[in-house]
Amino acid sequence: xxxxxxxxxxxxxxxxxxxxxxxxxxxxxxxxxxxxxxxxxxxxxxxxxxxxxxxxxxxxxxxxxxxxxxxxxxxxxxxxxxxxxxxxxxxxxxxxxxxxxxxxxxxxxxxxxxxxxxxxxxxxxxxxxxxxxxxxxxxxxxxxxxxxxxxxxxxxxxxxxxxxxxxxxxxxxxxxxxxxxxxxxxxxxxxxxxxxxxxxxxxxxxxxxxxxxxxxxxxxxxxxxxxxxxxxxxxxxxxxxxxxxxxxxxxxxxxxxxxxxxxxxxxxxxxxxxxxxxxxxxxxxxxxxxxxxxxxxxxxxxxxxxxxxxxxxxxxxxxxxxxxxxxxxxxxxxxxxxxxxxxxxxxxxxxxxxxxxxxxxxxxxxx
Amino acid sequence: xxxxxxxxxxxxxxxxxxxxxxxxxxxxxxxxxxxxxxxxxxxxxxxxxxxxxxxxxxxxxxxxxxxxxxxxxxxxxxxxxxxxxxxxxxxxxxxxxxxxxxxxxxxxxxxxxxxxxxxxxxxxxxxxxxxxxxxxxxxxxxxxxxxxxxxxxxxxxxxxxxxxxxxxxxxxxxxxxxxxxxxxxxxxxxxxxxxxxxxxxxxxxxxxxxxxxxxxxxxxxxxxxxxxxxxxxxxxxxxxxxxxxxxxxxxxxxxxxxxxxxxxxxxxxxxxxxxxxxxxxxxxxxxxxxxxxxxxxxxxxxxxxxxxxxxxxxxxxxxxxxxxxxxxxxxxxxxxxxxxxxxxxxxxxxxxxxxxxxxxxxxxxxx
Lengths: 367, 367
Description:
In chain A, a hairpin with an 8-residue loop joins β14 (186-191) and β15. The first copy, chain A, starts with a strand and ends in a 6-residue tail after the last strand. Chain A contains 8 helices and 22 strands. Chain A has a 6-stranded mixed sheet with strand order 13-14-15-12-4-16, with helices on both faces. A 6-stranded antiparallel beta barrel of chain A has the order 17-20-19-18-21-22. In chain A, strands 6-9-10-5-11 form a 5-stranded antiparallel sheet, covered by helices on one side. The model of chain A has no long low-confidence stretch (mean pLDDT 96). Helix content of chain A is 19%, strand content 33%. By secondary structure, the first copy, chain A, is α+β, with helices and mostly antiparallel strands. At the A-B interface, β1, β2 and α4 of A face β1, β2 and α4 of B.
């Protein structure tokens, strides 16, 4: 850990004041914005997330808003996922790829209506890709980053806390669906989603001035629920197999390699950038795939640069995220492995700063 | 200052090993990559930069490479700057704007030849804009981020140090020109440029494996010159009026407002995105402009969010960068001021965390 200094270029959020009062111990930078990464410690934040309920400042999940007659057409043209039949209360995990099938982002698309979409993005300036396409294709759509900052409520008691603030109707929201709900004089998109496997909601807070009132309301309502400020937890997200763009996935990887083949419609029914490339990948089969991998031995810090995986002397992949799991008593990790060596139970060696260790490909994530 | 943790998403550079051995005390994140921000202290780094010579890891100035028959056409279509007549050894500061004239980046364009360009970018994923345009316009050009990491040599003794490593021919390189020079078995673009006003060079190091050998060669050759590891210095760059994208300039600002009108060709001779919008700005005159502003009173930390400028009770602008200047004995700053109040000598009030202070618009930067 090294200090990062604040500047306008590393944007504060509507909730930064609350995050700091809650004793944040570190930030990362994500979409040119501050993202808290630890409050007490990764391990105690993890324990609390799994047992109670947390409020996360994930404002850095910025929105790219598409508005206009061509919004739906452009949205479909950017993703292999078939968006036909998507309802006006749905959120879709929608990989965005370039002409070579490389992943540019792995956002959640939020359909407000046929002519208005939000793309809730991972860490790349997808706004510029969308603007560039709209410009080049001369589409009738306006593209901008609106004043919308997601606040996540995650953990087993998330439903209870959310019901106290937004009413019992939150319990009826299905997974990856949303309702537009009232808070004071404001209305927010409230979705059943989030970057953890503990269940919960994401509130798309429109209007920065509404941020701290909502933050305070959640903490007041949740006092007896032991609500705390939290953040995406490295350990929990690896256990659950939640990918991190920039870490586990880059522009050099295609959706099939990332295990996202199920989101790729390769039929003639939909047309989008990269379809020809993805058809070739499907026909030939991906050469490598992201896998859950257990690493033998005691706890060590995860990789700041990928750790190479070997079968004997042959390099067959790399590990991009790793952490010690208190619940599973092992180093859990996510890596990209050549398909020749990706079967469950395959024993590999991983080169870590702590030396070579046994790494065993798993059949499933740790949930 | 808060800690930032390392991950693959916050990329290390070919020089990070050298930077850490030199005792870096803090990083920022720039183009998803580590950028050192302090070695001894901002003040002593500043003093040393102005008196001696420093080596800067500015790998985060990533390149967007355009290669192909349409490379030159696309490059011109993206910038208001007239690129006709640009030679194959020239670098041009070339604002990139969208259809509304808003600044998407303020990079340096490096012409390798008619069909091959590098865009040395500020902090936004310009790669995605260029790829999106190329895709939408169906141009015959490949767009990628090559393995090129700039290393800057800055300070009054930069010429002497560079001559010792690259030969006396570096002294013949003119401002914003480059030569392709040998280093061991590698060849690098070596340009007379850099993000300081102290003079110097930027070496576009191609091939990460060449990074540390060059780093070591510079430090060995410069031992008696008191060479040190350094980084862009907040104080020095404000004194010199070097703008910071994301801080002083955003997508909401156009080139005229940023004082870059001289780089905008509005004639019929060249065609580019945003020309109509920029013509309207020229015809109506910009409503606000970036100005150097001196702030009264003792040293305080610069803004992490813009400080508002007032004339009486009327808000007339904001300050986006500020620092105490040891050489000029005042707080130096950069701000955007409405043209009704931007004349040299205009007295305004600035709201700082330390209270309201007198702020005086200057006629020129502090050089």
